[in-house]
Amino acid sequence: MLGRLLGPAFLICFLTGLYSHFLQDPLPGMVFPTRPAWIYQLTQGVHVTAGLALVPLLLGKLWSVYGRLFEWPPLRGVLHLIERGLVGVLVATALLEPAIGLINTYQWYPWPFPFRQTHFALAWVLVGALAVHVGVKLPIIVQHWSRRERPRPDRPPIERHGTEGRDADISA
């Protein structure tokens, strides 16, 4: 569930960040309307709001997959090593991007690198790592979404009408 919310939130941040970046540093031949000013205000508001929403979503997602960090054997082959390395890049950039973005909202820059350029570059790394992660997990995602709920043998079937399965004669 959290992944379904995280993906769109990161995508919203990425697209609104691209808009902001290209307004400030347009590519040759790129022209954006500068009026009305509320368009930029809206996109920045959406960018910051989605970025703030990422924090609890990301922490919840990391908590839900925390146990996989300790699976044994830690590496099952070269492909598993690559996948775990890419997940490491994804987690690192997914934690760093909102953190430096949040610090930027306070206009405090305790780091030696330029914020805008670094935030922009990390966004591309994050989106690339997210795309690879979704691509690797796509068979599992498709399998999950295409299966129908099957009755579990350890649970009785759900009674839909409320009276089925009850004793018909309760006076006896």
TrEMBL record:
UniProt keyword annotation of Signal present: no
Transmembrane domains' residue ranges: 44-64, 85-109, 121-142
Tree of life domain: Bacteria
InterPro entries membership: Di-haem_cyt_TM (IPR016174)
Keyword hit for Hydrolase: no
Region of interest (Disordered), ranges: 149-172
Keywords: Membrane, Transmembrane, Transmembrane helix
Protein name: Cytochrome b561 bacterial/Ni-hydrogenase domain-containing protein
